[in-house]
């Protein structure tokens, strides 16, 4: 066991691969296809004869209900900055001003104005569209399904966690599943655990080594490589098979790297090819120790909890960081939370306001067949999630580096953020949504409903 | 690992539901997955809060009223279980083709649902206050209360044939005669 671990470590350091993992993944692919074929055959024979052919597998992105296209409720880009109540106050005060200037003539005019407004007609059937849209949203909406693992896949990968209902299909499949279970929990998992411990040891040793190392410049350079090796070991812990595309667009120092967020592993995956400065809140406990240790290998930006609320202070710190020549690029996930890798949600504009640094977008696309990397934080805590990851088959991921982007002349940060998001969505094949990832835990603001009411009112007026 | 056995869909229930509602097996299974996804606490029923969490329903001006109708008329004690859920949704299957019509998705049942969106005291009439409630929800602060009252009176005046200052179900259906309610109130369920 130790010798294999040492071998893996050596390979990680030199960034070579024996090709074992690719072969492993190909074999797994064959097994899954075989298992799915058995399952489909069984399903067809079970179903009643008057059903239409069901051999087409469910695509994970198809909708439950065809959404009607006439005037849908949508999140349009210009979210109102002023809440609806102040708008009302404005119109009310205008009207009182007008009435105080009334004369007899004005009274006449007001009456006629009043009657033209009452020409607004309301028909009982006007509620149909909203009612139907509400029902459609209950059956299938664009947002809530982004916060849980993507729907049932076409190919079953022998993990019960991805099966909605574990039905007994056939002895062969159950045998396969059991075999898979043993392999994953009793062979792969202990091995990965060893690697994980090895990685932590490496991190601690290298931190100590660097702390007492003379010469600041050399320290940063060594720190860069130490970081990469650390993350390569970590990626092998999860049996990650990463394919990089367009490495000429790798983020350079003095820039900000932006990516879509699916799981905490994103950081590890990106760091196997490039070193980044992290940015985040200072934690206590184990994670705090990790933060302090990492700080020895590179300059990260950790700020106090109280400072986190102060956006200007954070932006300042980022600016300072960018201006130091040898500092690593900053890695940021503007969605603010984990999304399930089928869509990209609203990018928070904070880091896009720093116009001095170019933005390097990165699209991270996971292949769900071998392990679902999405972290559903309301379902599993971090520890459970890591165990799930370490007992999956593998994490197969495509990393697409994209050309750098900078803010245009007349563009504001919100539009810039949207532009970058569109580029990432296009590359990764994600659905580009304007909804806020914060909706995972919070309700939408009142403003949006008031916007809908305004839309309806406008429509009534023009009928 | 594995799913919650107590709310798994049994085979015979499945067949029963398909027969009565007209949904296909795959459609019911997908709706069941949806139901479980909305049932975050895994308790086998949905509450008002579960439905209010859906952002598109939350920002819908009639969202709350829709949830009221669903919970009060189709669920009980503020809960709705899967069977009630799917029989509710069965109403909105398209009813154009004769073979797809069951007792649930007739044109009349769709209109009845719409009528219930107004008629919350279930006296089979939409009176002035009920109409005012719905109007206020739809336009919010964009029209003054007295204007809204005028509009409501105007609508009732036009549609009330028997002079009782409220709209009965028959009068309601009559006014929607020319609108293809089946088309507008149907959802196309994909499998």
List keywords for this structure.
heterodimer; A: 463 residues; alpha/beta; Glycerol-3-phosphate (1)-acyltransferase; five-stranded mixed β-sheet; 9% strand; B: 191 residues; mainly alpha; Recoverin, domain 1; 2 domains
Please characterize this protein's 3D structure.
The complex is a heterodimer of chains A (463) and B (191). Chain A has 463 residues and is α/β, with parallel strands linked by helices. Chain A has a domain at 171-450: Glycerol-3-phosphate (1)-acyltransferase, CATH 3.40.1130. Chain A is built from 14 helices and 10 strands. In chain A, the strands form 3 sheets. Chain A has a 5-stranded mixed beta sheet with strand order 2-9-8-3-6, with helices on both faces. In chain A, helix 6 (171-211) packs across helix 9. Chain B is mostly helical. Chain B is 55% helix and 5% strand. Chain B is built from 11 helices and 5 strands. In chain B, helix 8 crosses helix 9. The radius of gyration of chain B is 19 Å and the shape is globular. Chains A and B meet through strand 1, helix 3, helix 5 and helix 14 of A and helix 2, helix 4, helix 5, helix 7 and helix 8 of B. Chain A: Residues 76-86 have a biased composition (Polar residues). Chain A: It is found in: Membrane. Chain A: Keywords: Acyltransferase, Lipid biosynthesis, Lipid metabolism, Membrane, Phospholipid biosynthesis, Phospholipid metabolism, Signal, Transferase, Transmembrane, Transmembrane helix. Chain A: The chain crosses the membrane at residues 168-186, 193-212.
């Amino acid at each position: 066991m130790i010798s294999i671990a040492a071998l893996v470590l050596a390979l990680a350091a030199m960034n070579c691969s024996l090709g074992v993992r690719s072969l492993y993944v190909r074999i797994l692919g064959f097994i899954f296809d075989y298992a799915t074929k058995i399952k489909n055959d069984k399903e067809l024979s079970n179903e009643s004869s008057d059903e239409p052919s069901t051999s087409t597998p469910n695509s994970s992105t198809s909708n439950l209900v065809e959404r009607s296209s006439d005037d849908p409720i949508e999140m349009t880009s210009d979210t109102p900055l002023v809440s609806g109540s102040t708008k009302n106050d404005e119109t009310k005060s205008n009207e009182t001003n007008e009435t105080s200037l009334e004369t007899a003539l004005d009274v006449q005019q007001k009456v006629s104005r009043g009657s033209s407004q009452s020409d607004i007609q309301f028909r009982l059937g006007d509620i149909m569209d909203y009612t139907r849209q509400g029902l459609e949203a209950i059956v299938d909406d664009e947002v809530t399904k982004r916060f849980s693992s993507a729907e049932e896949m076409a190919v079953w990968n022998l993990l019960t966690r991805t099966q909605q209902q574990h039905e007994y299909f056939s002895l062969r499949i159950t045998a396969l599943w059991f075999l898979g279970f043993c392999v994953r929990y009793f062979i792969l998992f202990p091995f990965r655990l060893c690697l994980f411990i090895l990685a932590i040891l490496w991190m601690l040793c290298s931190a100590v080594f660097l702390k007492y190392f003379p010469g600041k410049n050399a320290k940063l350079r060594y720190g860069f490589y130490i970081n990469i090796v650390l993350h390569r070991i970590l990626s092998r812990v999860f049996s990650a098979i990463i394919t990089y595309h367009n490495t000429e667009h790798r983020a350079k120092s003095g820039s900000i790297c932006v990516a879509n967020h699916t799981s905490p592993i994103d950081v590890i995956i990106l760091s196997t090819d490039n070193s980044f400065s992290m940015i985040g809140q200072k934690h206590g406990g184990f994670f705090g120790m990790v933060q302090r240790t990492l700080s020895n290998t590179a300059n990260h930006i950790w700020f106090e909890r109280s400072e986190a609320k102060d956006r200007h202070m954070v932006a300042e710190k980022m600016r300072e960081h960018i201006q130091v020549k040898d500092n690593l690029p900053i890695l940021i996930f503007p969605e603010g939370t984990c999304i399930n890798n089928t869509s990209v949600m609203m990018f928070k504009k904070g880091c896009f306001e720093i116009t001095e640094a170019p933005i390097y977008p990165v699209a991270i696309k996971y292949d769900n067949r071998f392990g679902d990397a999405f972290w559903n934080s309301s379902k599993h805590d971090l520890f459970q999630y890591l165990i799930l990851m370490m007992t999956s088959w593998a994490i197969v991921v495509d990393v697409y580096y994209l050309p750098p982007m900078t803010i245009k002349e007349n563009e504001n940060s919100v539009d810039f953020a949207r532009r970058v998001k569109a580029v990432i969505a296009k590359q990764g094949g994600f659905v580009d949504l304007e909804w806020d990832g914060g909706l995972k835990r919070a309700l939408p603001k009142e403003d949006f409903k008031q916007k809908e009411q305004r839309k309806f009112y406008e429509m009534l007026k023009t009928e | 690992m594995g799913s919650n056995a107590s709310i798994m869909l049994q085979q015979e229930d499945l067949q029963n539901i398909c027969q009565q509602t007209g949904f296909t097996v795959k459609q019911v299974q997908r709706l069941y997955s949806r139901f479980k996804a909305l049932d975050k606490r895994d308790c086998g029923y949905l509450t008002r809060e579960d439905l209010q969490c859906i952002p598109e329903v939350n920002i819908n001006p009639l969202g709350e009223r829709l949830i009221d109708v669903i919970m009060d008329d189709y669920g009980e004690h503020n809960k709705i279980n899967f069977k009630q859920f799917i029989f509710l949704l069965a109403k909105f299957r398209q009813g154009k083709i004769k073979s797809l019509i069951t007792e649930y998705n007739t044109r009349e049942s769709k209109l009845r649902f719409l009528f219930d969106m107004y008629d919350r005291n279930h006296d089979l009439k939409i009176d002035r206050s009920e109409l005012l409630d719905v109007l206020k929800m739809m336009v919010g602060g964009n029209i003054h209360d007295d204007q809204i009252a005028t509009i409501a009176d105007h609508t009732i005046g036009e549609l009330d044939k028997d002079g009782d200052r409220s709209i009965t179900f028959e009068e309601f259906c009559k006014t929607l005669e020319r609108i293809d309610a089946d088309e507008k109130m149907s959802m196309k369920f994909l499998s």
